[in-house]
Amino acid sequence: RGSALLAIAAPAMPPGDPVEAADDESDRVGLPLSGSVPITIADGVLRVEAATLSAPDQRISLAGEIGLETLAADFRFGLRTEDPRALLRVLPAIYEDDASPLWEPSRGNGTIDGTLSADAAGFRTDIELELLSTVVTGASVPRIGGTVSIDSGGIQDLHLKLYRDGSSVEVRAAIPVEDPAAETNSSAFATPDFRVDLDLDAWNVGDAEPWLDLELPFDGKVSGALRIAGTTDAPTGHLTATVSDVSLSEVDLEAQLAGEIRFDPDLVQVGPLRLTAPTGDVEIGGSFDPRQETFDLRVDSSPLNLSAPPFDDWVAGYLAGVADIPGVEVEV
Predict the structure, then answer these.
(1) What is the pLDDT of residues 188-210, one digit of tens each?
(2) Core vs surface per residue 203-236: b (16+ CB within 10 A) or e
(3) Are strands 139-151 and 154-164 parallel, antiparallel or unpaired?
(4) Which among 115, 148, 208, 249 is least surrounded, fewest beta carbons within 10 Å?
């Protein structure tokens, strides 16, 4: 039985950006913390009461207990951050080939509060977060809020919502981790299933480009739902969406695009997609075989009035017909 006050002093940091200063993996070992941790030991339990720690642009509070015989732990923690990038110093494994992960925030501030419990069987942490003025992969997100539950089996429940100027993205996910022991001991080992659901309300289409690793030929405001499930080896998905204020190569088409896309490892089914514009309506449908790298695409349209926007400044007249493209053959 007894009590103690543990004082922690941070080592001197080199001048400059604390993240950029960590150039190699050996440097990315954690945050330089300072503060006090009051500890009491009684009845076989070590208790931490109202510990406060600080690091550059970070403030951490911690309270909880550990059973000295069972090593079972229960803690409550809180984090106030003015620089979320610096938190990545405690996650050296996420960097590969000096590339930053897409979800790495380059700017922002906010709070993260949660609980952590652990024993011989594993651990669980439940987190509630609120981030403001966040910039992720070049996109500014004024507010991100939500909850995350993680245990030894992976992300059991993630629920986040991103808000920006009347638009939003809601993300729900469950992403289990592979059990190396199961993979080693079982010839029938299967990669665990995951689930990711996105609900979008008037979000910028262009924000998806870095995540898709391609340059989209059009932009606009997308509303709809994306459901992805399965395994990382064989995912399946279904997108239903409407894109308003469609622009193509920065030309405003004054159009709306609506439809659906389904995909699995063997086939991507497109459409029907319908583009509605002052010039007329265009319907697109078809499929793509990712294994054979072949596609079958059909485009139908009503007579297109080329005297209507956005073509009225350049041409006049009508265009109509069908494009049926397996080989490719086009009729107009």
Answers:
(1) 445 678 999 999 999 999 888 87
(2) bbbbbebeeeeeeeebbbbbbbebbbeeeeeeee
(3) antiparallel
(4) 249
